[in-house]
Amino acid sequence: MNTRTVTSIEPSAATLAAVREWLAPVRTALGAEFLAAYLHGGALTQGFDERRSRVNMLVVSRSLNLDVLDAVRRVIPEDRKPPHVSPLFLTQRQIEKSLDVFPIEWIDIKERHLLIEGQDVLGGYEVPRSNLRLQLEQELREKLITLRQAYLANARHPQALEDVLKTAASSFATLCRSLLRLRGESPPAQTPQVIERVADLFKLEAEGLLAAHLVRYGERRFKGADLMDHYRKHLVEVERLVNAIDEMRVP
After folding, report:
1. CB crowding 116-155: b at 16 or more within 10 Å, else e
2. What is the residue extent of each domain of the chain?
3. Which one of 2.60.60, 1.20.120, 2.60.220, 3.90.1200 gives the CATH number of domain 132-245?
4. Using one digit for the tens of pLDDT, what is the confidence trace for 203-222?
5. Which CATH superfamily is domain 13-118 in?
6. pLDDT given for residue 220 in this prediction
7. How large is the average pLDDT for residues 44-54?
8. 3-state SS class at 64
9. Which of 6, 10, 20 is nearest to 46 (CA)?
10. What is the pLDDT of residue 47?
11. pTM assigned to the model
12. Which of 119, 91, 120, 122 shows the shortest CA–CA distance to 106?
């Protein structure tokens, strides 16, 4: 079996074994409809912790009609213990038609994927970048609104803001990587360096931008006034980043 990485590192043996074990019954259920299965995202980056983060899988099929879906749903392994697999099922045509709609996601997958089984259907695709800035601004504005609404809603339960930051951490890192690509830079391998580089480029406070990542992946748990301080700083810096993206001009 031929596997290939793109701007990524080899996942741990335990992660690979778990992914292949998860894939085996799914591959059998898909039968002749199966085209490819990829590992992508955080599992291919330095510092990935399978106990805390989910393993992203892309499964590509010739079709995903109801008969195919019914066959697959009967055999998908139960998600009982780490590493937890988060599968995305798509047809090849759905990929082709969504490249211009989801440039952030597809650029990230193109640059960080590992073919686990099947034929490489991603290699020939080029992701249009004409909509990249617009999608970045849209998703960052959505994050800002979510952060602000949660801040207002949890005045009596401030510890609930911990989950808000944890939920935001992974996707925020993806947005930061996309921002660097939009600026013509190759993102660093480690997420903290990615966020720090974005802070540097847009003259923001790195501590605030890093807050969600630190709460999600840091060794210590943030509580009380310390958590609130990190949340407030993150909220301020995300708003400043949104304003910077709004004024950004790209060729």
Report:
1. bbbeebbeeeebeeebbbebbbebbeebbeebeebbeebe
2. 13-118, 132-245
3. 1.20.120
4. 999 999 999 999 998 888 89
5. Beta Polymerase, domain 2 (3.30.460.10)
6. 85
7. 69
8. coil
9. 10
10. 63
11. 0.75
12. 122
